[in-house]
Every structure is written in structure tokens, then in C-alpha cells.
Amino acid sequence: MASDLKTIRTDHTGALRRPEWLNHLYERAGEGNASPDEVRAGQGRAVREVIEQQEALGLPVVSDGEFCRIGGFQESFGGAVSGFDAQPYVFQRRAAQATASASARPGEAPQRIETGLSGPGTAIYNRLPVKERLQLVRNLIAEEYARASKVAGVPVKVTLIGPDRISQRFEYENSRDVYADMDAFLTDVIAIERQMIAEAVDAGCRYIQIDEPGYTAYVDPPLLKQMRERGEDPEANLERSIRADNAVIADFPGVTFGVHICRGNSGGRGGAGWHREGTYDDIAEQLFAGLKFDRFLLEYDSEMAGSFEALRHFPRHKVAVLGLLSNHGDVETPEYLHRRLEEASRFIDLDRVALCPRCGFGSADEETQWGKFAVMQQVASEVWG
């Protein structure tokens, strides 16, 4: 099974559209009108139903939709540790989150959405100092795997935010009484994430995805400027993050590791805005050769990601999971996906390729989400059998 997971032809990035009744339950819980037992029962029902739907479509690996992360995907680490000078995670509807972070207004053209700013907020979403050394207080991914694997008939993947994003959201300059430098901080991050992964693996998990949206910062002019203004060397940051990611996933035999590299959930065709500028090309060789992951989940649903030419740097033993399906807008046609795969085949053999949506489906409607998965499965069957 471990070998099969490395080469599965369809995949997704973990986050799925949360049912509206579960949102209402979280709202009631926040108001004090739903008990912890009610919340746990609702989460169990939601996870069971979303896994049943994924299995009905024939997905070879499923997730719990990240339904139990009330604060979003970065809660996988930020909500698992103590030590950050952070506010607690609370439920917010995506529309409210988007309004708070986006500079665009309804009816305006899409604009850049600034995230990760210094200031009060939750860990990893905001750039924050620490008040004491990080400690693991709750292994969210092990909990998620235990809950999902009880109701799944196919392998379950879990997702964990990676050390590059965590380092970019660490206000080291105001934390030197706790960590002397970034290397000292990342030593603890790596140790904690390895413990989280080890406990999930011991429970039976064989596919773990590391989310690294921060890697596209190294081709993004505004964020490169911010790094340099803080006195950082972006190239040194990138090299350190690659080493840290490799350290996190080292020596887990029989486990498939994927890495998701994107610009955030709001970009692509039909999205509200974007988090990153620039293409993969300038860092492709360094990332694809340097990161020791089995699978690379990449966004390729719009021209913003650049051409497929960066795929020429892909090592033969790794799989490029191409995010050709947008997480917004109309369901893609089979003809469109076939054409895009043919374009990609000019730079990489299709036997080293798989299909996925570009990012999570937190802000898409369920009909669109499942329609996109269905056409993805259809095209994969037609291309690879």
C-alpha cells in the first residue's frame, strides 16, 4: 500500500467545503448554546459523511476535510502547541475572514490579499513572537487520523503546516530572550512535528502532506523586499527551510510524504484575489531536487503559476501532482484537462504526473467541489486507466 500511495493518479489538498449545519453548530458552541459532546458528535457525523462522498467518487485517498480545525488549516501546528504570544482560535465564517484580510471590496477587480502581518492574532496566521519555548500540547493530526480512519475504507491522509511557513510567521526579533535565533526555534519546531508525525504513523497513517504555502514567498517581490528590510537573506531562508522540511520527514519507512506548494486559497480562475506573485521557475530546480518528498502538489490552474517549463527539473523518482482544477468557478471540462495534460507532457512524462485541485475547497459550494472531483476521476481513468 505504501508504494501505491506514492503513485496514485488523483489527490486533493485536504480542505473540503464544510457543511453549513456544522458551521451553525460551531456558531452555537461559540455562543455557549452547544455542548462539547454535541460538537464531537457533529464532527463525527460530518467526517463520516464527507469520507463516504469521497469514497463514492472513487478517490484513492481521503481526508476528513479538515472539518475539525475551527481556525483553518494552519491550526494543525498553531493550535497544537503552546508558547506563541497568540490569541485562541475561534470559529469565523470564511466571508468574514476574507473581508478582514482582503483589500478588495465587492464588485471590485481581484487584488492582492495581504496575510501574515505582525500584530495580535492566532499563531501562524499572524507573525507573532513567542513568550516561552514551544511545547506540544495537542496532536491534532493524530486525533484527525484516529477519527477518520475508523470510518474510512481507503487510506486516510492528514495535513500539517510545515516549518517554512512557521518560520515566516515567527517574530524572531522580539523573541530573543526565548530563542537566540531562527535555527534554535526551528530545532524545536522540527522535534515537535516529528513527534506529531510519529504518533500518527504509529496509529496507522501512511500518507502525510506538509503544507508549505510559504515557499512561493521566495519568488514574490513584495515579500522578498520585506525579508531584506528585516536584514534577512532570502536565499539562506530558503535553504534553511528545505533542510528543515527534510529533517521533519526523515526516517519514516513505508510512509508517503507529499508537499503542497501554492499561493493560498483565494487565487486562480474565479478567485477573489491572490497572495503571491511570481512563478515556480526561479526556485523549481532547488525545490524539486532539494526537497525529499514523494509527491509535489502544485497549482497550475491559471497563468499566474507560469508555464509547465519548470517541470523539466522534476527528478524521475518523484510525482508532480498538477493542480489543474481551480477551487473556484465552473467545473472544468474533460477536454480542458486533457489539453493541459498534453501541454505538461512536453516537459515531463505523464507516468510521473497526477491530478488534483489547486488548493482547498473551503470557499467553494459543495456541488462545484464534487463536480470537479468527478471530472478529475474521469480524466485520470481515461489517461492512466
Describe this structure in words.
With about 375 residues, the chain is α/β, with parallel strands linked by helices. The protein has one domain (about 1-385): TIM Barrel (Alpha-Beta Barrel). It is about 40% helix and about 10% strand. The protein has 13 helices and ten strands. The strands form three sheets. Strands 4-5-6-8-9-10 form a six-stranded parallel beta sheet. It has a two-stranded antiparallel ribbon with strand order 1-3. A two-stranded parallel sheet has the order 2-7. Helix 2 packs antiparallel against helix 3. The two termini are about 20 Å apart.
User: How many individual domains?
Assistant: 1
Task: List SSEs in N-to-C order.
Answer: HHHHEHEEHEHHEHHEEHEEHEH
* Averaged pLDDT: 90
CATH class category label? Alpha Beta
CATH fold assignment? TIM Barrel
Give the helix/strand class: alpha/beta
Helix content: 25-40%
The helix tally amounts to 13
| Widest beta sheet: strand line-up | 4-5-6-8-9-10
Oligomer: single chain
Overall 3D form: globular
CATH architecture, by name, is: Alpha-Beta Barrel
